[in-house]
């Protein structure tokens, strides 16, 4: 089969690999129809997430048709399904608490050592991501093996296009959980750093959850315009002092909740960011945390900080004093996708949430490398790339 | 004046000095979201152990309390020894040891206790072994016991996967040669 393959920093190519097979009883094999490129893939593309190996197949946002099932899969051949990017067994302590991205049983035992050393606990499995999370072959491919296919995949109702449901695999639930973690109350201002796919879905979700005011922060004018579509106000950090603007837009109080939908590769020339950038170039595992630091300073006293943005290693110059002295609550994590898919599918069906406006480009899988390059270099116009595979 | 001081409550295997006489001590505990009886019954049938212990090729019963263990060594070699069960308490504990004179001197205990608030069972494995001598010893040490702590940890994790998820996670995309 053909699959988008990681070869090193800024080097991805579509190569030929053997087709996947059923290995475990709960497996299914999908023929992929649509698969998207995510901001998380860009962290891999830039080589800032530790634990990648040349030859890895990327892709964790995908959907397709079931073509083969193991003896304990609940899926049937021919069904169309969307697959959560988190691989979860559904049986462990964490899965039963619906903390699916903390699943104990999806990262192969021998692969758990690295994250146990680095993070103190072993991470769960994720498709098409680092070997810290299992090194599972991803879905930017013609075929993909889906473990625990009786727990994760959600069957797509008749008549719904790929584009309307594909983002249930990651960014829609991620934006939703980000807003949920902001614990929005009546009258709240929610500020969201990053108007990428995650930030934009966080904006949309925060509106639906009843925020009084949502402020989207980025430096790409077109992305900020998309945020405006959902009624958000915007701050272009290339033109405006962010902290000052946020105070002025909240009557001198500061946002009640802040969301970091940027992650470990913040843009900008603030002093802390330039220092982080140098560090990240020379040492893998160093994060660039400018957006998060700014969010911590911006949030009001007793406010809430929600971090869907991905970090993989160490960060210094962390304003711990601001956190402690202001009494801040911080929530974060890889998304517990399976917890949200059913409810969000219903909201899409009922027309409450639309996701298709986000897609700026469709490309055939063969041109995936070009998609990475453009999504990376031309963020303003390339807001989301969907690859069509079969 | 001498103060009376007691040792801390951490298990032996977590101590900086993790030896008991000649024997090295390794072990690990893991919480498994399944009832004690189920886990005990699975472990009590030693023939099940190779399903999650990768270094063990097979375990065959040779008597009511005895079994022959075949361990995979490098270059396709096999090492065998005979073990006997030295203590069993239903649904709580199983202990075994290699018979005196075996190529590998080892003894182990696995115990099962209820986790709090219905969170399943805490399974604790404690393995003692004498690092073997001679050429064979080195060979075996390299594979089976080079990093016994890591080995023990991986095996308990695979046991947990098998018991909770019903299968052992792999990121492979194709079956291995042995499974064809
Ligand atoms: N928690 C999860 O489960 C999960 C899931 C998906 C994605 N993510 C993470 O969410 C983050 C965003 O993903 P995405 O797909 O939207 O990525 P993206 O790269 O498309 O968007 C990031 C946006 O942040 C903006 N930005 C950069 N620096 C900024 C700054 N200093 N202030 C404000 N905005 C800034 C960029 O201009 C860009 O528009 C990534 O870190 C990604 O890995 C997390
Ligand atoms: Zn993603
Ligand atoms: Zn689980």
TrEMBL record, chain A:
Domain Alcohol dehydrogenase-like C-terminal: 197-277
Highest taxon of the lineage: Bacteria
Keywords of the record: Metal-binding, Oxidoreductase, Zinc
Keyword Protease: no
Cofactor names: Zn(2+)
Record GO terms (molecular function): oxidoreductase activity; zinc ion binding
Positions of the Alcohol dehydrogenase-like N-terminal domain: 25-153
Claim: Repeat is one of the keywords in the record: no
Family according to the record: Belongs to the zinc-containing alcohol dehydrogenase family.
UniProt-recorded name of the protein: Glutathione-dependent formaldehyde dehydrogenase
Provenance organism: Devosia oryzisoli
TrEMBL record, chain B:
Superkingdom to which the source organism belongs: Bacteria
Basic and acidic residues bias (residue ranges): 9-22
Gene3D superfamilies: 3.30.530.20
Region (Disordered): 1-22
Pfam families associated with the record: Polyketide_cyc2
SUPFAM superfamilies noted in UniProt: Bet v1-like
Protein name: SRPBCC family protein
Protein source organism: Devosia oryzisoli
């Amino acid at each position: 089969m053909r699959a988008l393959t990681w070869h090193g920093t800024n080097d991805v190519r579509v190569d030929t690999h053997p087709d996947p097979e059923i290995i475990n009883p709960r497996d299914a094999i999908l023929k992929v129809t649509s698969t998207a490129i995510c901001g998380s893939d860009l962290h891999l593309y830039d080589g800032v997430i530790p634990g990648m190996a040349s030859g890895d197949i990327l892709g964790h946002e995908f959907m397709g048709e079931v073509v083969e099932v193991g003896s304990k899969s609940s899926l049937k051949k021919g069904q169309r399904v969307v697959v959560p990017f988190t691989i979860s067994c559904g049986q462990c302590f964490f899965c039963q608490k619906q903390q699916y991205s903390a699943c104990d049983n999806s990262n192969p035992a021998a692969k758990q050592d690295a994250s146990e050393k680095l993070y103190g606990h072993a991470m769960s499995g994720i498709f098409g991501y680092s070997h810290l999370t299992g090194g599972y072959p991803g879905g930017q491919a013609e075929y993909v093996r889906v473990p625990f296919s009786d727990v994760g995949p959600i069957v797509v109702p008749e008549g719904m296009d790929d584009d309307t449901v594909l983002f249930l695999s990651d960014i829609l639930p991620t934006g939703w959980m980000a807003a949920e973690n902001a614990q929005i109350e009546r009258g709240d201002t929610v500020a969201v750093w990053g108007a990428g796919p995650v930030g934009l879905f966080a904006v949309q979700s925060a509106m639906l959850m009843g925020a009084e005011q949502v402020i989207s922060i980025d430096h790409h004018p077109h992305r900020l315009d998309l945020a405006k579509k959902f009624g958000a106000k915007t701050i272009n950090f290339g033109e405006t002092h962010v902290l000052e603007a946020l105070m002025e837009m909240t009557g001198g109080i500061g946002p009640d909740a802040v969301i970091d939908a940027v992650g470990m590769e913040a843009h900008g020339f603030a002093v802390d960011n330039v220092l982080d950038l140098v560090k990240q170039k020379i040492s893998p595992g160093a994060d660039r945390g400018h957006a998060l630091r700014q969010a911590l300073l911006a949030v009001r006293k007793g406010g809430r900080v929600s971090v869907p943005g991905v970090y993989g290693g160490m960060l210094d110059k962390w304003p711990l004093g601001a956190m402690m002295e202001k009494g801040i609550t911080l929530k974060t994590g890889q998304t517990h996708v399976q917890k949200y898919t059913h409810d969000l599918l219903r909201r899409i069906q009922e027309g409450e949430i639309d996701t298709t406006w986000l897609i700026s480009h469709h490309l055939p899988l063969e041109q995936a490398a070009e998609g990475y390059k453009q999504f990376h270099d031309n963020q303003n116009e390339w807001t989301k790339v969907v690859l069509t595979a079969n | 004046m001498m103060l009376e001081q007691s040792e801390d409550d951490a298990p032996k295997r977590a101590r900086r000095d993790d030896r008991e006489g000649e024997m090295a001590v390794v072990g690990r505990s893991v919480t498994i979201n399944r009832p004690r009886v189920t886990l005990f019954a699975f472990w009590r049938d030693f023939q099940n152990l190779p399903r999650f212990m990768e270094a063990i090729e097979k375990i065959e019963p040779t008597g009511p309390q005895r079994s022959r263990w075949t361990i995979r060594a490098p270059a396709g070699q096999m090492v065998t020894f005979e073990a006997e069960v030295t203590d069993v308490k239903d649904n709580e504990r199983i202990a075994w040891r290699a018979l005196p004179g075996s190529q590998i001197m080892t003894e182990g205990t696995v115990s099962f206790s209820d986790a709090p608030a219905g969170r399943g069972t805490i399974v604790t494995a404690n393995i003692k072994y004498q690092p073997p001598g001679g050429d064979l010893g080195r060979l075996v040490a390299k594979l089976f016991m080079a990093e016994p702590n890591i080995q023990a940890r991986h095996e308990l994790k695979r046991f947990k996967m098998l018991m909770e998820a019903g299968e052992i996670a792999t990121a492979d995309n194709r079956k291995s040669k042995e499974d064809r």
